[in-house]
Amino acid sequence: MRKSSPSRPMRLRTLLTYLSLLPLGACTKSCDDYDNAAEFNRAQLPPYTETGAHTMGCRLGPQVWTVLGHHDAGRAIIGGTYWEKNELWAGPFNNFLTPPRVPLLQVMGRMTGVRDSKAFYDMELNMVFHLTDTLGGLRLLGTDTARATTGIQPEAMWANDYLSFSNDYRSRTRRPVRLQIRRLDRQQRIVSGTFEGWLYGGPGGNDSLEVADGRFDVKY
Description:
11-stranded antiparallel beta sheet, 3 helices, globular, signal
């Protein structure tokens, strides 16, 4: 015997009940207070490994930088507060400046410090490099973006300051970031290495930011 479907009034009551509960569920994610200041102050560089541990860290100016905390993604998505966990990402980098035959990898992470639900530090670090075995593993991440009118070109590093977009920093040819690939395992898809150098930008584009003690170990 065929089972009858719910009547239209019953379906309507079910929908209204769901809608009445939705703001409570949304607020659980978007309205909760968040504070990671203590964890931020204890942040340390990850140990250097070559196992695909999915880590990245460096000293970015005076600050120990690693992937940590949650950033407020709500302003761009829902116009309110929504804390989203920062995660390390590694995958292909593609743009119209890059020939399809050139294998490029992008490694990207973000560190956010929040006190009483207000960010006091929010810096994203990106690097893009060739997945090749040339130059003994050495990469010079030195694209001078001051001369690039169509976007970020390959083999570069940049730091985005989400608290002040005028404070972004980018690698340049005059003093490039030296990236040393120490393991490139194409079968297990692991790449690890170290990096150091300088990024340039900041207010007016005349500031500099030292990158030191950099290390990463990712699966791609």
